[in-house]
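On clarity, I found the account of how folds are encoded harder to follow than it need be. What matters is that the chain and its backbone geometry are given together, residue for residue. For the editor and my fellow referees, an illustration may be useful. For illustration, here is how one protein appears when written out as sequence plus structure tokens:

___
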Amino acid sequence: MSAWILPDHIADVLPSEARHIEELRRGLLDTACAYGYELVMPPLLEHLDSLLSGSGEALDLLTFKLVDQLSGRTLGIRPDTTQQVARIDAHLLNRKGVTRLCYCGPVLHAKPDRPHATREPLQFGAEIYGHAGVEADVEVIALATQSLRVAQLHDFSVDLADVRIVQRLLAGLLVDLPTLRRVHAALAVKDASELAALTRDFPQAQRDGLRALLNLYGDVEVLAEAEKALAGIPGVAPILADLRQLASRIDSPAVTFDLADLRGYSYYSGMRFAIYAQGVTDALVRGGRYDEVGAAFGRSRPAVGFSLDIKQLVPVVEPRPLKAAIRAPWVDRHDMREVIARLRQTGETVVCALPGHDDEVDEFNCDRELAEVDGQWIVRSI
């Protein structure tokens, strides 16, 4: 095998794209800071039992595992950052009031989580701990949509769901975990025949309710249809009312609903949302409520947040123009070095051409040059 071949779904990021990713990273973190979110930097790996606490099978399958040479314990390379931030909130910060945290760093997946996806996403996310009200949900979604606007993406829709609806439908039923996962998967992909086979022994009301969920997607009228279809299921009406209230407070070009959408990680405990862009099949942002995520670390309290992969954003948003730059000859003179230093201090990019070489750059557009005219160094257009 050639030494330059990388593993499947792992790729180098070349100069122009790397600059775009870095500009997006800075813009997203600055946006979160403007909302009052504090930056944390969890480690890339930690003990497996801590990393996967309460996360379910999906994250376990995505996790690279290795043995620590110092302790002999099994470590995991993080496939997601939410568990780590929950640990920080519960165990290290341990604040009584509301805590707003954000993060941005690489995660690693043992297998791609969708077709053509990278196994090394650059995950940005933001989370609120300590407030159970709809206000935290509204703020998190507002930050998520503003993050896309900062990335110059404006044509998107917010899709809402709530995992408690399915929980209410299955309440009191003795369903083993493998069957439950298959039911969730059938709902997510809207496989009516698979769902019918899995629920053939369920009570009639539960079978009808689960089957109805497959068609409960669309605009706000879906909530009225759900109220009728699920009228006999205790506890569903308040959940639908919560979704209606939340939707009315979201600033988005479009708000839709998919009450059967259970995609994502099993730590979600309530409202869930996904943000889709025009012409893109996969969600760019996923988030929701995970009020029990801190329980494994000794402190269960309300939590809501979202995450996105910055690398996934780059091919979707408008390409950035090349950065304007000044080309300068390599002249070993003090006066020229001073001129170049002043230009760089004012924010200009100055690329010095080394003797005998023409510079080939993908990231900069050298539209000006530094030239000596009548004993003075001046910047002129090329």
